[in-house]
Design brief:
Blueprint (H helix, E strand, L loop, with lengths): L10 H10 L7 E5 L3 H7 L4 H22 L3 E5 L10 H20 L1 H7 L1 E6 L7 H14 L5 E6 L4 H17 L10 H5 L12 E4 L18 E4 L9 H14 L17 H22 L2
Parallel strand pairs: 1-2, 1-5, 2-4, 3-4, 5-6
Helix pairs in contact: 1-9, 2-3, 3-4, 4-6, 6-10
Length: 291
């Protein structure tokens, strides 16, 4: 299935979306796409087929987000913990990722037309070289787009992300790029994989599990979190609209608080360090892409 699914909304669904858009719409939502394996068992299919159905649902969900005016979506596609699953399932998941990122290049014109920016957040060094190359090429190909942003967490955990951020700051302090006194919550945020994104206002988890599974723990500290019993491949437009409606009802409670996001406005020294950090990350993607 395409990365950008055809809009299949009914007239009534579009009408409901217009009504919701009269209220506040989150700029950024995050989704833990859980329940693919249980869906496969339920439908008596192979696990990999359940994961494929999950990708198709992601494409559909992204089209709904575009219709709603949600600019940025971050999805938990593959946890570092998933490497502990059976070799067969891990290999199938990695192969599915290869197929989907290969498909992405076939749809380059459509992605550019819609202005979609693909970012892969996570520890790419853990991936096979060929898959890492595909992902890096996708990131570089779309990095100039800004109308819609999809962050694919693959492979990712918050503990790994925060550890990486702290290690970067320790190395920078040793090199006198920053001082120990410069290190605070804001600077740590600016070193995370998501440093180019505002924090998500909404985090959704499907399948009935009531936990975050080490996903965006730092960034979601002020997010509204919604747990739904529906399995991810069965997630529908009404489930998404219900979450947005609940967000609108709860957003008043956030009035008076600072807007979610990362300003990262520091001294010239800090700005120089952060600019170098982002340049190095792009350079690393270029290295991965040119293997």
């Amino acid at each position: 299935m395409s990365w950008i699914a055809k809009n299949s909304l009914t007239t009534f669904q579009k009408f409901c979306i217009k009504i919701l858009k009269c209220g506040p719409i989150p700029k950024h939502i995050a989704i833990i796409m859980d329940g693919n394996r249980r869906y496969a068992r339920k439908e008596h299919m192979e696990k990999v087929e359940g994961h494929a159905k999950g990708f198709n649902k992601l494409a559909e969900c992204l089209s709904w987000c575009l219709e709603l005016g949600i600019k940025e979506v971050t999805v938990y596609a593959f946890s570092i913990e998933n490497f502990k699953r059976t070799k067969k399932e891990v290999d199938q998941l990695l192969q599915l990722a290869r197929e989907k990122f290969t498909k992405l290049f076939e749809e380059k014109q459509k992605l550019m037309e819609y202005g979609v920016c693909i970012r892969v957040i996570g520890n790419l060094s853990l991936l096979p070289v060929d898959l890492r190359k595909l992902m890096a090429e996708a990131v570089l190909m779309t990095k100039g787009n800004s109308k819609a942003i999809l962050n694919v967490a693959f492979p990712y955990t918050s503990q790994d992300e925060i550890t990486s951020s702290i290690q970067l700051l320790i190395k920078a302090a040793h090199k006198a790029q920053i001082s120990v006194d410069d290190i605070d919550e804001e600077l740590i945020s600016c070193c995370l994989y998501t440093n180019q994104s505002p924090n998500p206002e909404v985090l959704i988890r499907t399948s009935g599990e009531v936990r975050l599974s080490d996903f965006l723990l730092w960034q979601a500290s002020e997010s509204q979190i919604f747990f739904t019993d529906v399995l991810w491949p069965e997630f529908g437009i009404w489930h998404l609209l219900a979450c947005i409606f609940k967000y609108q009802r709860g957003v008043e409670q956030l009035q008076g608080k600072d807007e979610l996001g990362q300003s990262c406005q520091k001294s010239m020294k800090i700005e120089r360090f952060l600019n170098e950090l982002n340049s190095k990350r792009i350079s690393q993607m270029e290295v991965y892409a040119n293997v």
